[in-house]
Amino acid sequence: MTMSASPLQVVANARLLFFQPQHPGSREPVIVARHVLDVFIAQQRLISNNTNGPGVDTGDILCEGYICRAAVLDAKRPYAWDFLDASQPWQGIGVRGIYQPPDLTDPDTGITTTPPATTCFAPCDGLCWLGDLSGLQSPGLLPPQPRAELLGLSLLLVGQAYGSGGIGALVQPQLGEKVVLALKPNRVLVISPGDTLSVIAERYGTTVQTLRKENPELATYETIVTVVGDTLNLLAGRHGTTVDTLRNLNPQLLRADGHLVLEGDTLAVLAELYDTTRPTLREYNLPDLDRYPGAEQLPLGLVVNVPAIRPSSELDPGQDLVVPAIRPSTLLPAGGWIRLPKLRGVSVTDDLWDVDPTLEQPTPDPDPDPTSPLVGFSSINL
User: CA-CA distance, 167 to 319, in Å (whole number)?
Assistant: First the structure.
């Protein structure tokens, strides 16, 4: 135990890594900081079909505990296991660490302001390493502890009160902030040699795009130059992304003059006209059309941003486009880690696709004669 930790550090049994988004709850989160916490936690119960909910899936393990110490790291990880480094810039004694956003300078006035400091709040996602913290080393690596476990994690509650007055007021400063967590088994994969996004996506029944969404650090980009025959459909498949993502990364693919709304124009009509979707049109036209009904007449005279190029139309050769840098076939660094989405359950109807209709199916036994005295008795081998 050190002066930078609560008295519970001697019994801490897990190290947590949380990703702090710039805007909590955003559909496309931008990670601004990573929070490392040593905690003492205890299992409460296994989540069932009757107790699941937002951030908590069937099969998750609900745990409660206390923060012992905390540190804040840069959003970009310099190497895979830096959060397991025994030496961290600890700053919080039993409380979450503080992240200070960089100063902002107004381009018009030149005035610089300092944004308020923040920290991670629930709900928040991350990783949990359950193991012997005394075995951690510097620099950080995945310790060779066979009984240790690496899990996904959702922070459900943090900083809950212990009760007003009395013993609660006395123990709260000693124990640190309380945390309620949902541990998610089989949601963190240690990358093996030969693993790529497409290999992992096929192995776990997901998509490359979903893996990128679960792992914002994979969202690195590069600029390519289009060649003869390139289309948005072709580039989306080549780089393991979607046409809508390419359009979002490249604003020049929108019509410069937009679409002037006329009588009869609705989001559904424009989506069909420009070979796109209603959610995409809403996203292109925030905040005006954020929740606009798809079948309702749009305001006359409104200029709507729409795609300039259809997904199947050839792009002009020599055009600069921003695309994801990590392709589906790019080898991922072995020994690192990647987060997996919630594993898709298999329903009974999925198995029906494996039934070969050309094979002769066994003929069921005929119903017994209801007048037979043997009805209701099992068959007996004599």
Answer: 68
Per residue in 134-146, pLDDT (tens digit) is 999 999 999 989 9
The tokens for 54 are 């937002």
pLDDT at residue number 380: 39
Angle at 66 between CA 63 and CA 70, to 5 degrees: 115
**Nearest partner of 254 among 284, 275, 234, judged by Cα:** 284
Cis status, amide bond into 139, omega within 30 of 0: yes
Say which residue, 365 or 134, is predicted with more confidence.
134
- Write out pLDDT tens, residues 188-247: 999 999 999 999 999 999 988 889 888 877 778 889 999 999 999 999 888 888 888 888
* Cα–Cα distance list, 77 to 18, 65, 300, 336, 349 (Å): 12, 27, 49, 11, 42
Q: Are 152 and 61 in contact (CB under 8 A)?
A: no
Reported as a single tens digit per residue, the pLDDT across 62-87 is: 999 999 999 999 988 888 899 999 99
Identify the DSSP state of 362: P
Long-range (24+ apart) CB contacts under 8 A made by 214-221 are: 214/338, 214/339, 214/340, 214/341, 215/338, 215/339, 216/19, 216/29, 216/30, 216/31, 217/31, 217/76, 217/77, 218/326, 218/338, 219/324, 220/324, 220/325, 220/326, 221/249, 221/322, 221/323, 221/324, 221/325
**Cα dist. 315→119, 174, 230, 274 in Å?**
44, 64, 6, 16
What is the Cα–Cα distance from 19 to 22, expressed in whole angstroms? Answer: 10
322 or 27, greater pLDDT: 322
- Name which of 344, 71, 64, 44 is nearest 187 in CA terms: 344
Phi, psi of 276 (to 5 degrees): -140, -160
Q: Which helix (H) or strand (E) holds 197?
A: helix 197-203
Strands (DSSP E) found in the chain: 14-21, 31-46, 61-74, 90-93, 104-105, 112-113, 124-130, 149-158, 178-184, 188-190, 221-225, 259-260, 303-304, 320-324, 337-339
Q: Contact 266/294 with Cβ under 8 angstroms? A: yes
Beta bridge partner(s), residue 15? 38, 129
* Residue ranges of domains in the chain: 7-185, 208-324
